[in-house]
Amino acid sequence: MGSLLRSKEMKLIRILVQPEAAHVSIKMLGESGFVQFNDLNSHINSFQRPKVNEIKKCNDIERKIGFFESQLHQEENEIKLVELPKEKIQEIEEKEIDFVDIQTEQFVDELKQSIVSREDTLAQYVDLFQLYKSLEKANEFFAQDTLESELEKNKVGDLDFVLDDNELYKGFGELRHIIGVINRDDMYSLERILWRLTRGNCLIKHTEIEQLIPDLITKKKVEKKAFIIFYSGDLLGEKVEKFCQTMGAKLFEISNSLKERNEMIEETKGKLDEMRFLLTKTNTYYLKNLETINSHLAHWKAKTKKEKSINHIINMLNFDTTRQCLIAEAWCPYDHIFDVQRILKEASENSGALVPTILDVIDSENRQKPTYFETNTFTRGFHQLVESYGTALYGEVNPTPFTIITFPFCLQLCLEIQLVAVVYDGRYIILLMGLFSLYTGLLYNETFALPIDFFGTCWKPQSNSTDYELVSPNCVYPFGVDPTWQNKKNELLYMNSLKMKLSVVFGVSHMTLGIFLNLSNAIHFKRYVDVWCGFIPRFLFFMSFFGYMVFLLFLKWSIRWNERTIQSQKHGILLINTLIKFVISPGSVAKDVEIYPNQGLVQLILILVLVFSIPWMLLPKPFVLKANAKKKERKLKLEENLNTQENWEPIDEEKFVDKSDKSDKGDKGDLIHSSELELVSDPDQIINKDETLLDENEKKLIENDVKEKGEIEEKSEKEEKFQMGEAVVEQIIETIEFVLGSISNTASYLRLWALSLAHAQLSRVFWQKLVLLPLTTYSYIVFVGFAIWVFITIAVLMIMETFSALLHSLRLHWVEFQNKFYGGEGIKFVPFDFNLILKEEMDK
């Protein structure tokens, strides 16, 4: 075990480590990525765990890092975020996170000060710039000589309005004005509402400001307009001024004198130059701070994430009764136990701990083990497709080795255009899709709906007839479909028959592989009842009908029907009629439709096997399971009686004995000790070299803990009693599901034929209507049609159709294939690995 076909062998280890060595040990284990820690404090609230303050500190640092990143994203055009390669990440010391906390806090204070200074300077600059533009536009407004006439034209003529609001127009004889700047999008609303608010007793003039002005709220540059409002009346002026401020307009007081306005323009221009210089300096200082932060940001993120993950693991550890030792429990691949031993020894030496770290391999017979498959760049993508359905049970067959071939092949049975290979972007899934698309394109002899004449043809037209005849009776086209079938009257009938039969052959072969993989699982887990009452009747049922159907397909292809002596068989036999009569009238085959000698007898035997296999699947297994349960119960009672007469004795600590997979109930306490963690060449030879270093309290703790664990497991086994009713119902469901599923699953593979047919017909229609038809016009329409044909081929055939075929292929693998053997109810092995943690963080 340990290949891609089955998961690596896993062991449950217990680590006893001194508190002063815990941080270094976990850090080094995280760098190796060999173990998956179990939470021994799941019953304790996260706020009551020992490292809660350290985790809070890391959260505060991450919050400050998030603040830095938000500022950097605002200046992404000026500063490019630095991504630190993982090989350059500095080693973390236990107290280094305190330095990171202090350093980030200092940068936060400096950055906030520079932000406040920058925003204040920018606000002053924007106000001065808007004042400067308002002064320029004011001269243009006052230069117009038609203000009196326009005000008179816009004045309301109804005297009742004036009488009703006579206070509003107090001091009406004096013409006044308001000048300001507003967002361009709000100008129309301001103008309309003011006209209604003043009943037309105001004159509004506005003009565009050529330059974009920064918005202090959104930090984006926006278009703005300068405006001037002429009105008469004190109360009316107050109302106009308040409404303009409500709309977000910036108002300015500007003199009516041209001379004073010109003086203000010169004065504002000088202040504007000074403020622009100050803004440049402030912005430079702000960007310099950001660049300094950016150079450290990746280091801070990596260190904080690693330190936080280490503290999370420490929170999962438990103290012994003396509070002098931390206990960790973890899953580890058997191949890496020696590596973990070496790492713990090195960590213990580096930390200066007085007592070495202890490594035990403990019994995990009654624990569900995590599943771990070692993949590479080629197999990883296919394995992710399989795990999207579910993680395999520990020791269960992994469909990935078969999916590597069957998935792209099944996909490309639907898509036979050769251009799929062009889409290759470096991913191995697409590469194999391209290779199999070439194969199926050659098999069907279809490239953009056109055949290619590689080997000539075996057909020639008959004289004075539209029919064709064979060039030679022994002529066989070497590979694929003869190109002569293109554009013939019976082409669609022939291609449909061929593709449908190929789909059935592939489907039956695929599901048969799944049935044999189920046998492999049963043998591996030593569930021999599943072999005799599961695999054998299922295989017989499946082969007696569906296997026989595939046999008839190949037999029909191999027969020269024109040489048959029976006249009715000169043009072949419809297999669908043969299969119908095979079920309806078993053993009875007419001579004019008999394909091979003694066909009736063979079919009678097959139908009897088919019928007999159904009760074989249904009935024996529950009774066998009940008998096994009673036998096991008697054995447990016998062991219980023996255990009451014997005292539990601890294992000899001078030997490493791994009985985790072979031990019986009396071996629950078998441990693997390594007090000094002496380096050996074989994990099965880990030796407790100096047992005097092991404190007597710790020995007692280990023995009591293992003894209690064994008692709990024995008690749980006693409580799990066999239920005959549940077993019968479960077996009925499984039998019905397999019998009916065999029919529906085989029919599901016909979607390969349906998709291939639709794809071929679409290709042909596009070619005929967009390429061949425009060629008859001898005009520029040829170029237009060809361009449309290229676009539709890529968009419809290569993208949309490929996506559709991908979904169908996934379904055929997840449902029709994997339901024969794959439970997908396992627990994925997720090691404590800094590389994975940092990769997830960088991907965000």
Inertia-based shape: flat
- Please state roughly what percent of the residues sit in beta strands, choosing from under 5%, 5-15%, 15-25%, 25-35%, 35-45% or over 45%: 5-15%
Helix share, percent: 55-70%
Tally the helices: what do you get?
A: 22
Mean pLDDT: 81
The strand count comes to 15
The Rg value, from CA coordinates, equals 42 Å
Largest sheet: 5 strands, antiparallel
Subcellular location: Membrane
Transmembrane segments: 428-445, 502-519, 539-559, 571-589, 601-619, 779-800
Function: Essential component of the vacuolar proton pump (V-ATPase), a multimeric enzyme that catalyzes the translocation of protons across the membranes. Required for assembly and activity of the V-ATPase.
Protein name: V-type proton ATPase subunit a
Topology, element by element:
Elements: E1 10-17, H1 19-32, E2 36-38, H2 52-74, H3 96-142, H4 147-154, H5 159-164, E3 175-183, H6 184-197, E4 202-208, E5 213-214, E6 221-222, E7 224-232, H7 234-246, E8 250-252, H8 258-315, E9 318-319, E10 326-333, H9 337-351, E11 358-362, E12 370-371, H10 380-387, H11 400-412, H12 428-444, E13 459-461, E14 468-470, H13 491-524, H14 528-558, H15 575-584, H16 599-618, H17 620-645, H18 696-719, H19 724-748, H20 750-775, H21 781-817, E15 827-828, H22 834-843
Parallel strand pairs: 12-15
Antiparallel strand pairs: 1-10, 1-11, 2-10, 3-7, 3-8, 4-7, 5-6, 9-10, 13-14
Helix pairs in contact: 1-8, 1-9, 2-3, 2-8, 3-8, 8-22, 10-11, 11-12, 11-21, 13-14, 13-19, 13-20, 14-16, 14-17, 14-19, 17-19, 20-21
